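Progress note, sequence design subtask.
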């Protein structure tokens, strides 16, 4: 796809799924460019969060990544939130109740 070619909604393709049509409708409703949601990446992130952390972590993680990406976009920056969240989920080891959270520097918060 070139910059001059408008993106075709994914739900118009033969064999498209209800998910494809939902994401097309959601992008339109939220004022997002067509095909701006990387469905595969979001589903992979949700799977990793659900399996490595806990099932309810999937939607919460996806929301947090979208929020972080939106804040970065508002600042005119790109976001690596999806990659960072995926890495965090895959490396997650629950320290258990009452443990002090550890940041990337290893300092407690």
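Output:
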């Amino acid at each position: 796809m070139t910059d001059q070619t408008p993106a075709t909604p994914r739900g118009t393709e033969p064999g498209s799924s209800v998910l494809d049509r939902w994401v097309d409708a959601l992008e339109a409703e939220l004022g997002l460019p067509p095909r701006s949601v990387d469905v595969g990446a979001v589903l992979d992130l949700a799977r990793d969060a659900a399996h490595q952390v806990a099932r309810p972590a999937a939607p919460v993680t996806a929301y947090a990544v979208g929020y972080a990406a939106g804040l970065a976009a508002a600042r005119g920056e790109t976001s690596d939130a999806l990659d960072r969240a995926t890495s965090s989920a895959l490396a997650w080891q629950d320290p258990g109740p009452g443990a002090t959270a550890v940041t990337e520097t290893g300092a407690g918060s």
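The radius of gyration is 17 Å. Work on this subtask will continue into the next period as scheduled.
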